[in-house]
Model the fold of this input.
Amino acid sequence: MAEYYSSFKPKGTRWLLQRLTAAFLVVVLAFHFMLLHFVNHAADITFMGTNMRMQQSGYFLTMVLFLITATFHGVNGVYNALVNQGLSGVPKTAVKFGLTAGGLVLIAQGIRVALAMAGVS
Amino acid sequence: MSQSYDRGHIEDFSRWTEFSAGMWAWVLHKFSGWVLIGYLFTHIAVLSTATVDGATYTNTLQGLESLVIVRFLEVGLLAVAVFHILNGLRLLFVDLGLGLDSQDRSFYASLVLTAAIVIASVPTFLAGVF
Done:
């Protein structure tokens, strides 16, 4: 049996959410790369094309969910990596609130961008 | 049952020659994760030009795509993303108790598959920039 070390509390909510978002992101990140690099080449992206895609409610919701899950997965991953390196006490609390605030700002700005792309002013 | 053990400090770079496949997988997964979250913030910042007007958004993206360095950075981003996806899938299977006896081989497979996908994608990523 391989030895196991993790900063996650086994069976904790964040542990589960990190894995659930991972399973979702594996599919959506691959889809995002395929669509915007192979189906539509990045160099040919225009606002008109983006606008057409974002006006489809299914695509819009997928992208917003992609933003939220990726932000959670990334910010939670960074937090756990730092805890894994020995972060504790007041710096740990400061980092937790800093990352949470940064994540929320990113999601808010991302949704603002998504609405602009969909032509909602 | 989980147990903790002393892995030493990752900052002790002289230890890299002693790294096992598992340690390399850990290092590369953390590295690719840091790159991806850094990129996510940058990506939203660039796409924020859409809030100005359509022409600014189109000109910004096409201007960036006309730079050779950006195309190479995108290939690097693809490498990082594909490795994080494949190694992440491996970790999800390990969490489910699947493939515990072949973790080394599945890590090597994720490296080889990442290299194959990235090399095959280079022509698409560099198309039209030279």
